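Margin note: ligand = F0G.
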Amino acid sequence: MSSREERSEEAARQGPVPRTMGQQFGRRSWAEPWRIKMVEPLRVIDREARERALREAGYNTFLLRSDDVYIDLLTDSGTSAMSDRQWAGMMLGDEAYAGSRNFYSLEEAVRKHYGYRHVVPTHQGRGAEHLISTACIQPGQLVPGNMYFTTTRLHQELAGGRFVDVVIDEAHDPESLHPFKGDVDLEKLESLILREGADRIAYFSLAGTVNMSGGQPVSMANVKALRALCDRHGIRLLLDATRMFENAFFIQEREEGYANRSIAEILREFCGYTDGAWMSAKKDNLVNIGGWLAVDDDSLFEDLRNRVVIYEGLHTYGGLAGRDMEAIAVGIEEGIQDDQIRARIGQVRYLGDLLTRWEIPIVQPVGGHAIFLDARRFYPHLDQTLFPSQTLAAEIYLDSGIRSMERGIVSAGRDPETGDHRRPRLELTRLTIPRRVYTQAHMDVVAESVKAVYDARASTRGLRMVYEPKYLRFFQALFEPL
Ligand code: F0G
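Resulting structure:
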């Protein structure tokens, strides 16, 4: 029997994948709220060519040429398909150096949906992180947050701060089914404040969703309580809003009292508990480049507006072309629609459901932007210093030309004080789903490749790092197979 026949028999036994959230009975499927108008051909190179490409890339998927990749699940950042309306908006770019009309469209969209008064554009998220970190951190201060993100923590450290993780313990456990694994542990935070003194805290760094724990959300109840705690101690609360549309979806789905509220309403309420936000518009805002900062406080805004002209560009373009700002403004309106987010997260879940049915170890519950394979359980015979997640990303590429990303010990980097590897409990390989780009058939192909790599796991050996850059080493490190 062909493997296709076997697969369809197997599928018949197990029944349809439940892709209609909350409707497990019968088949009433949702579908993407768009159709395809322009396509980009894909090509897959043969096994021998993949072996050569991976060797030349030092077994680091960041160093592959995209032409050598078949399905690209490296990241959901800047990889979205833009709509006809966004492209039409790009034609309305006002490329004036100062006061471009597109800046005012962006400002209006951010004010309307995120609710902050002042907006500063930046070239992407880390440009915004740089400005907010240097504006708000005094050397020696602490920055507590709900799990680190690579670029965010590095900018906090470069500004003289030290990041302190106060996320709930469940966030570090890939098997915990806690519905809000992005929540802050308020007791951990309060004891940090009491031990160190509120003056030593630069601000609270809150991310919704939490990328490194698997795209896990923060609940409304938690942000509300966090706001109250910050108020008691006079601490500013700043939000990494990069994937807040997705975070709002999980609140709508899981938190009592929000089932009948729109994503837009939930977002406004959530942001209302914070003092400001930074944003990589390359994710939720559906563009290929861009970012922004937004705050309520007048004097903080004045400072940020002054800093942006040093590093990014004038405060009405921040390193972006006018057309880019228009695309973000339109992207915000499109990205915040309930049906858009349901289809986006639905596609991620479709892939997660297949892998779960095949008993492949992934982070549960499935989060917003990606499937995170649990490389510790995938390769229990590999010590963390043999880079199991990096190895897994390499093996998936060799199997099918599908590109994923390491999110484990390589991404965690070294402790700046001791120089040792940081050893995160989570050793993950991320299959990140770009927005509006791939079809359900692509997801089937991905799942089947992961299954093939899983079936061959016992014979897999690890990697050795042969070159290590100083900052954000995962982007450029080189490896060799053992
Ligand atoms: N914050 C979060 C939560 C992110 O995921 C990213 C980027 C940034 C900030 C930085 O934004 O890339 O526009 O400078 N994450 C990408 C990823 C790179 O693949 O997860 P940026």
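The chain is about 40% helix and 10% strand.
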